[in-house]
Amino acid sequence: MNVVEKAYEIACEKYGEYGVDVSSALARLDSISISIHAWQGDDVVGFEKTDHNLTGGCQVTGNCPGRARTADELRSDLEMALKLIPGRHRVCLQAHQVDRMFKGVDRDGYDVQHFSEWIDWAETRGLKMDIAPAFYSHRNLDNGMSLSHPDREIRKFWINHGKSIRRVAAKMGERFGSPSVCNVWVPDGFKDAPADRYSPRLRLQDSLDEIFSETLPREYLRDAIESKLFGIGVESYTVGSHDFCLGYAVKRKKLLCIDSGHFHPTESIPDKLSALMCHLDEILLHVSRGVRWDSDHVAVLNDELLGIAQESVRYDYLNRVNFCMDYFDASINRIAAWVIGVGNLQKALLNAFLEPHKKLCELEGKWDLSGRLALQEEAKMLPLGAVWEYYCLKNNVQSGFAVMDVIRKYEADILKKRG
Ligand code: RNT
Ligand code: ZN
Fold first, then answer.
1. How confident is the model over 380-397, as pLDDT tens digits?
2. Which atom of ligand 1 is nearest to 294's Cα?
3. Does the Cβ of 343 fall within 6 Å of ligand 1?
4. How is domain 33-74+87-353 classified at the CATH fold level?
């Protein structure tokens, strides 16, 4: 028996004292697929090879060498990251991360052929896929407006983009036998106080209705809409605010996408989940970390992430929560960014599965609130790390700081050689 196995045995005993079964926690963790965001690897630039500048809401900072310049490079980087991430997962694309362009076809005409290599690649590697339309980084994002733009022609372009990517998502879902989540987020807003807050929202509502008007099979496609509080350059007004998106999702039976960076720092995503679950069938979580603002830092194992995981698994609605990573840090090795962030969500989920939740509820039921606090704090001392290392070992995945040796080698051999 090696040291990881020994530590695991002791951990099982420790958790057992609180009535927690570790092997069933591991089985539950193993059943969770996280959608890994491809855009961490190319700094949300995409592969359209046009003159479009990055505009609207996605501010990537840092210049660590090795940004993927092609879809092939990005797939190779993802493969490296996936070797260091236990479990079976999904890959999520932004619509401008195309394999190829066709002459005269712009985003309003993209179809499954634009992503065929992605799909073949995912299939051979046992991955499933999600995709989001990209309503940014394009000349038709006029005055920062897409689906809510006052000009019908501009709106039409973006509506057709949404429709085309929905169809691509449904095709992906059909191919992989698992619904693809297609998440609509628009950067539309105003830097300074608008004279008219209402009309853009009515237009956004109509545009969304038009995008979703085509009936596509639910077994292959899940539609989501993502709200936001503000963005750089749109500080005063965001058309698709939380109130707007929540109302729309409830009314039209869509998934609501909750991004951890998109709320005031004193708001709690863990607290929002159970409230939303009273009114929504399903939600999409964009797992991110804001530092003072919506800064899209790599997810770390902080109270917020632990709480998101706990609130996702404590009740009987885990199958209604979809996890997708959404951050982009270009100041550190991008593969490390994936491995660390995804690993942290997995650790948070494992911690949640190992929580002595039944006991906590019993104490709360007896109004033993000091006992509840004592147990909550004791639980923080339980040997989560030993269980995680064992899980990695069983999945033949390197764990611990040694992961960095593997990443550094790839950096030296591949990433540093990119221009
Ligand atoms: C932007 C949203 C959105 C983006 C992606 C790249 O604030 O979070 O989900 O991160 O479109
Ligand atoms: Zn997001």
1. 999 999 999 999 999 999
2. 7
3. no
4. TIM Barrel (3.20.20)
pTM: 0.97
State pLDDT tens for residues 346-382. Answer: 999 999 999 999 999 999 999 999 999 999 999 999 9
Centre of ligand 2 to C-alpha 322, Å, is 13
Q: Where are the domains of the chain?
A: 33-74+87-353
Rounded Cα gap, residues 323 and 194, in angstroms: 34
> Which of the ligands is closest to the CA of residue 94?
1
For the record, the structure tokens of 208 come out as 């969304």
For 203-236, what is each residue's pLDDT tens digit? 999 999 999 999 999 999 999 999 999 999 999 9
42 lines ligand 1 (CB under 6 A): no
CA distances from residue 400 to 4, 81, 188, 301, 392 in whole angstroms, order as listed:
11, 14, 42, 14, 9
Q: Give the residue from 361, 342, 385 showing the smallest Cα distance to 32.
A: 342
CA-nearest residue, atom 4 of ligand 1: 58
